[in-house]
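Milestone 3.1: sequence recovery, worked example.
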């Protein structure tokens, strides 16, 4: 392991993956709570349009993607809250319009097809020092925000009407969650790519839900699982010469399968070892049974 991480680019890949592995599940748990697990894919496609615009204008693709994804997230949140278009239709528009715009803009720029593939499938080992700073600053900001505002965000995701009656700024919190999703998607795009972004945000949460009950414990377990998948995925990629993003996601899914099987086995064992209920004696004819 020391042999692989003696190179600067591998260290940058590892640090970037660990930051994303913590931040993505910390935000993803709110998306799962709101049943918006696939919104990351839609915003990721909009971010791809920002990447194309950045390459065309010779600007930082990551920063331009942050702006594009943020605008897209705000638009879809406003559409969702006003109820004029169904959530599924709004996500479909993001999916198709975002990837079509990204492919078109990349084609108009001088960038090669390899540049597009790097953002579609991730290219963590090509993370530059400037990219790592962007990932670190934005990732820590997302992590701190999600933890600091956990009670309010949980209330909004659990019951929006109750949160509004309680006096919480529901619209502002929803927009904050949308913007946080856009930022998380953009920085995770470097690690796992547009096509696998939602997996890193959702799979650790789904895994944690198999063995935890409370929201706080689920969040902590999901972050730990995301951290494990990110770090181990980079190590596996370095050892087996595989794509880091795909390795991270496969480890996350593998963890889900293992935990789900263990949880199912534990439930089956409890059912077998549970003592049978004692039979209830029928009352005699002369006894009075009280309801």
């Amino acid at each position: 392991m020391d042999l692989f991480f003696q190179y600067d680019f591998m260290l940058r890949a590892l640090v970037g993956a660990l930051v994303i592995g913590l931040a993505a599940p910390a935000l993803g748990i709110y998306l799962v709570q709101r049943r918006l697990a696939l919104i990351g894919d839609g915003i990721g496609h909009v971010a791809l349009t920002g990447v194309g615009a950045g390459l065309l204008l010779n600007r930082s693709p990551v920063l331009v993607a942050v702006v594009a994804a943020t605008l897209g997230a705000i638009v879809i949140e406003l559409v969702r809250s006003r109820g004029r278009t169904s959530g599924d239709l709004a996500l479909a528009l993001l999916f198709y319009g975002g990837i079509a715009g990204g492919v078109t803009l990349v084609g108009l720029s001088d960038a090669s097809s390899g540049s597009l593939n790097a953002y579609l499938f991730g290219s963590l080992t090509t993370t530059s020092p400037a990219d790592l700073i962007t990932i670190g600053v934005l990732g820590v900001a997302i992590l701190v925000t999600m933890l600091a505002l956990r009670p309010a965000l949980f209330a909004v995701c659990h019951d929006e009407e109750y949160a509004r009656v309680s006096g919480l700024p529901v619209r502002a919190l929803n927009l904050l969650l949308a913007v946080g999703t856009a930022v998380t998607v953009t920085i995770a795009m470097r690690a796992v790519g547009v096509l696998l972004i939602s997996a890193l945000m959702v799979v650790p949460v789904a895994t944690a839900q198999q063995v935890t009950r409370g929201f706080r414990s689920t969040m902590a377990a999901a972050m730990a699982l995301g951290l494990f998948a990110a770090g181990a995925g980079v190590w596996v990629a370095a050892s087996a010469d595989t794509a880091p993003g795909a390795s991270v996601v496969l480890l996350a899914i593998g963890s889900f399968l293992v935990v789900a099987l263990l949880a199912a086995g534990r439930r089956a064992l409890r059912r077998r070892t549970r003592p049978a209920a004692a039979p209830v004696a029928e009352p005699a004819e002369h006894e009075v049974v009280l309801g």
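Confidence is low (pLDDT under 50) at residues 285-291. The radius of gyration is 23 Å.
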